[in-house]
Write a structure and sequence with these properties.
Peptidase_M20; hydrolase; Dipeptidase; binds ligand BES; six-stranded mixed sheet; 21% strand; Cyt/Met_Dipeptidase; four-stranded antiparallel sheet; 18 strands; alpha+beta; Peptidase_M20_dimer; binds manganese (II) ion
């Protein structure tokens, strides 16, 4: 494509400033206190798609936050790329751990990002990555180089489970019809080693509640004589893994796909330094399922983690009390073929069976989704690979990620098309954590790589 580099070079300050404006709006979907901001973000995304040259842009209302839809159809006989992204962000807390306020974006230089990185909630996940597509579109339309049809579908509820998007996709199959789905909401290995995400894990998220006595009790008067829900809950949680860190839920591994030795050997070729990994996290050793490497543990193997646990007295000083209730939020990351609803049922049955007499247990399923794997011999993957070769000077490595974008498997089921995950983030970008950031180098690289995907996908589809 002509002039992509010079276009990016000439416009980069504007690209950065526009993203900064978008990042200033706290579009936290999980917290209703931010409702107005989430809605305002949808309006801004709509405007940006119009400016980028979409012919038809609309705000599609749902029972929750709206979906921004835009399209430019240049020729019904040409292929259609559907771009998906999300404009909502994770909550910013714990806010005190941010070195600058989460919704007042600033550019800071780091060792990994000597060109600077934008620090703000959503910088990488996913406003920054979503906006690369808007700017890539702007480049293609303004230089008359858009080679195919484009549809954009940017949602506002990804971080809370995409429940309304799932309904929207099911009833809008014709509108969303496409030849390939393109998403930038994942990462890559490093700036030197580009990679394309070929897999995502599924998810089952549950909340558990253990109830003991009907009220909080004096821990001296009653201690030792009744079940303490917090003691019991922690014991039940501990029983969910065995000494090899295998998950103990009966049937949990039944459908897990076992990779061949060859596939595992292939995976092991990706550059990875255990020493650097430990150093970056300040841990003296890694921890996980016996028999698997770190990269396997966080991609091709299922896991179970407590995400939050509470109960009893956590205020200043000490209070002697046996709480009536204890709670935990638990996520299970799943691999392809494990069905999240089935796993949720297995968890519920097993967790209830772990409860001793003297407590009541309630398991509340939250949300979930299936895992995903995509082949590397598809036109979409090959086109993406060629695009990276051109901008990175290297063939990207296919890599399965540990994260989840549950809607991707639903796209395949309902729209019958493959998704290509062109992520430009780094694991160190601190998504979902304090001090989330996105490298300016990565942002601009994304903008210059994306149009090449369109070009090669159109050429290779002929
Ligand atoms: N963009 C992430 C998922 C992701 C990040 C995948 C990096 C691969 C690499 C997405 O916004 C996300 O956070 N997903 C949630 C699940 C969702 C149902 C809340 C997740 O993975 O925890
Ligand atoms: Mn995301
Ligand atoms: Mn996220």
């Amino acid at each position: 494509m002509q002039n992509i580099d010079s276009y990016v070079e000439k416009n980069k300050d504007r690209f950065i400033n526009e993203l900064i404006e978008l990042l200033k709006i706290p579009s936290v979907s999980a917290d209703s206190a931010f409702k107005k901001d989430v809605l305002r973000t949808a309006d801004e995304v709509k405007k940006s798609l119009e400016k980028a040259g979409c012919d038809h842009v609309e705000i599609c209302e749902t029972e929750g936050y709206p979906i921004v839809y835009g399209e430019k159809i240049i020729d019904k006989n040409l292929p259609t790329v559907l771009v998906y992204g999300h404009y909502d962000v994770q909550p910013a807390d714990p806010i005190e751990l941010w070195t600058s306020p989460p919704f007042e974006p600033v550019i800071k230089k780091t060792d990994l990002h000597p060109e600077g990185a934008i620090y703000a909630r959503g910088a990488c996940d996913d406003k920054g990555q979503m906006y690369m597509h808007v700017k890539a579109m702007e480049f293609m339309t303004s230089t008359n180089q858009l080679p195919c049809n484009v549809k954009f579908m940017i949602e506002g509820e990804e971080e809370v489970g995409s429940v309304n998007l799932a309904k929207f996709v099911k009833v809008n199959q014709e509108k969303l019809k496409n030849d390939v789905i393109l998403i930038s909401d994942t990462g890559m290995i490093s700036k030197e080693t580009p990679s394309i995400t070929t897999g995502l894990r599924g998810l089952s998220y549950v909340e558990v509640e253990v109830t003991g006595p009907n009220r909080d009790l004096h821990s001296g008067l009653y201690g030792g004589a009744v079940a303490n829900p917090i003691n019991v809950l922690t014991k039940m949680i501990a029983a969910l893994h065995d000494e090899n860190n295998h998950i103990t839920i009966p049937g949990f591994y039944d459908k897990v796909e076992n990779l061949s030795d060859e596939e595992r050997a292939q995976m092991a070729k990706a550059p990875f330094s255990l020493e650097d990994y430990k150093k970056a996290l300040d841990i003296d050793d890694v921890y996980g399922e016996k028999g698997y490497t770190t990269n396997e543990r966080n991609s091709i193997r299922p896991t179970l983690d407590v995400n939050g646990i509470w109960g009893g007295y956590i205020g200043e000083g000490a209070k002697t009390v046996i709480a009536s209730k204890a709670f935990a939020k638990i996520s299970m990351r799943l691999v392809p073929h494990q069905d999240w609803e089935e796993i949720t049922e297995l968890f519920k049955k097993h967790f209830e069976s772990l409860a001793p007499k003297g407590v009541k247990v309630l398991v509340k399923p939250h949300h979930g989704g299936q895992g995903y794997v995509t082949p590397i011999d598809s036109i979409g993957y090959q086109a993406a690979s060629k695009a990276y070769e051109e901008t990175f000077g290297k063939t990207p490595i296919p890599q399965r990620s540990g994260g989840s974008i549950p809607i991707v498997s639903l796209f395949e089921q309902e729209l019958k098309s493959k998704t290509i995950l062109m992520g430009f983030g780094l694991d160190s970008d601190a998504i979902h954590s304090p001090n989330e950031h996105f490298g300016i180098w990565n942002y601009l690289k994304g903008i210059s790589t994306i149009p090449l995907f369109y070009k090669y996908f159109t050429e290779m589809s002929k």
